[in-house]
C-alpha cells in the first residue's frame, strides 16, 4: 500500500537545502514522490509501506542535516 507522511522540517535556510533534501528522499527505495518546501519547512512523502517506514524516512532527513519537529 502506498501511504503518505508529512514532516515539519527545521533547519533549512535556502532552496539548496530543500532541493538536496527532496533529492535524498526521492532516491530512497520505496519512495514514489517527495515534495519539500522551504517556507513552510515541510516534506510530503508518498511511500510504499512494505519497503520503507516513516521512522526510516525521518532518519534520512536527519542524515541530510535537518530536524523533524512535532
Ligand atoms: Mo543553502 Mo542549505 O547555501 O544545506 S544549501 S544553506
Automatic annotation (TrEMBL):
Keywords: Metal-binding. InterPro entries: Heavy-metal-associated_CS (IPR017969), HMA_dom (IPR006121), HMA_dom_sf (IPR036163), MerP/CopZ (IPR001802). Transmembrane segments: none annotated. Pfam families: HMA (PF00403). GO terms for molecular function: metal ion binding. SUPFAM superfamilies: HMA, heavy metal-associated domain (SSF55008). CDD domains: HMA. It comes from the Bacteria. Residues 3-69 form the HMA domain. This is Heavy-metal-associated domain-containing protein.
